[in-house]
């Protein structure tokens, strides 16, 4: 079996007791000539990068990426993909619209020419066993995971959606262009847990369903045995054992205020060295009153997560109704995928 390096471009890290200094002053180790180094983020304490879970495949060397065009402005909140020097000035047109994602040298053809549903797996070990790269779509129940997949592949009901939470119950693989997978997953939490971040302080106040989700992300051991069995042998097993996982699209509902469970999930992924991209969904939905505007909710969410990361994580605004963010997200996935492919064929 081919061993692939897992992208840790954007690992979420555990919350820090003290907020870090402004990001602009953080040391950065990315270089144009070292994609492997580019995958790692340097912390303020200059801690060693996390160990890769799998090593690069030996053999054929890839060509070095072309130099990145330089522009006139620097935005410290931008996400720099592999192959782009974090110190490089970036022209506005090099940033994907409605996102903080810079387009780098690994970005390629991102068109979806064909897509098909391949299989539904009840267990992680039943998932496809070929070597194709994949992106997992994760988020709370009803956040719009299945809808996003349909929007990306431009198929109305390839992935089944519902107004009622809990529609997707298995791991569903969709093959795109016969070369990579999008994976639809069951949601965590419930749609009715619309508590704001500060509102969830301790496990006692949480409902059984809320605990159910937290068991999945390994944070609380106090939930029922049945819940623990379901998640630990299923979705969690998928994340911990899937060598072909390029990254996670962590969906966050922009039409409601930030939810602590999403941050907890990001932290769990970070602790397990799994790279993520925040995908804000339902950006077309706007209600009157506090917490009703996507822009405000996204800003609040970003302020909350900013102290968790040594460098800004990638994020993008989307709507499965209007198509906002669709092409940009596909382009972003193309650069992560190409980097993953490229890196996997380099000599150690
Ligand atoms: N307005 C709006 N509604 C959306 C959007 N995305 C999804 N929805 C709606 O949200 C509901 C849930 O969508 P799903 O795609 O089934 O959500 P899911 O995350 O797959 O849910 P589970 O499978 O239960 O975990 C459906 O009624 C969708 O039509 C969006 O971008 N805008
Ligand atoms: Mg679904």
Automatic annotation (TrEMBL):
Transmembrane segments: none annotated. It comes from Oryza barthii. Signal peptide: none annotated. This is EngB-type G domain-containing protein. SUPFAM superfamilies: P-loop containing nucleoside triphosphate hydrolases (SSF52540). Residues 25-46 have a biased composition (Low complexity). Keywords: GTP-binding, Magnesium, Metal-binding, Nucleotide-binding. Residues 1-79 are annotated as: Disordered.
């Amino acid at each position: 079996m081919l061993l692939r390096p897992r992208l840790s471009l954007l690992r979420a890290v555990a919350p820090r007791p003290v907020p870090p200094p402004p990001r602009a002053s953080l040391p950065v180790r990315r270089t144009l000539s070292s994609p492997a180094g580019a995958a790692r983020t340097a912390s303020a304490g200059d801690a060693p990068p996390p160990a890769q879970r799998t090593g690069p495949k030996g053999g054929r060397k890839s060509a070095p990426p072309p130099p990145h065009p330089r522009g006139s402005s620097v935005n410290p909140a931008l996400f720099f993909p592999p192959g782009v020097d974090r110190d490089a000035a970036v022209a506005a047109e090099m940033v994907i619209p409605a996102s903080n994602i810079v387009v780098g040298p690994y970005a390629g053809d991102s068109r979806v020419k064909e897509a098909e549903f391949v299989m539904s797996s009840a267990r992680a070990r039943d998932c496809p066993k070929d070597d194709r790269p994949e992106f997992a779509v994760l988020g709370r129940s009803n956040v719009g995971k299945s809808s996003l997949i349909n929007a990306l592949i431009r198929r109305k009901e390839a992935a089944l959606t519902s107004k009622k939470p809990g529609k997707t119950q298995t791991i569903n693989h969709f093959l795109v262009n016969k070369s990579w997978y999008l994976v639809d997953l069951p949601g965590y939490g419930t749609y009715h847990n619309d508590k704001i971040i500060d509102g969830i302080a301790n496990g006692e106040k949480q409902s059984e369903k809320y605990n159910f989700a937290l068991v999945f992300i390994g944070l609380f051991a106090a939930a029922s045995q049945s819940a623990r069995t379901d998640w630990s042998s299923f979705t969690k097993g998928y994340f911990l054992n899937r060598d072909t996982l390029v990254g996670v699209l962590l969906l966050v509902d922009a039409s409601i205020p930030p939810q602590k469970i999403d941050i907890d999930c990001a932290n769990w992924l970070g602790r397990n060295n799994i790279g993520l991209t925040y995908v804000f969904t339902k950006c077309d939905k706007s209600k009157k009153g506090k917490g009703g505007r996507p822009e405000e909710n996204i800003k609040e969410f970003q302020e909350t997560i900013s102290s968790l990361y040594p460098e800004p994580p990638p994020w993008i605004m989307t709507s499965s109704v209007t198509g906002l963010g669709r092409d940009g997200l596909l382009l972003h996935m193309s650069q992560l995928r190409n980097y993953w492919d490229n890196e996997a064929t380099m000599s150690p």
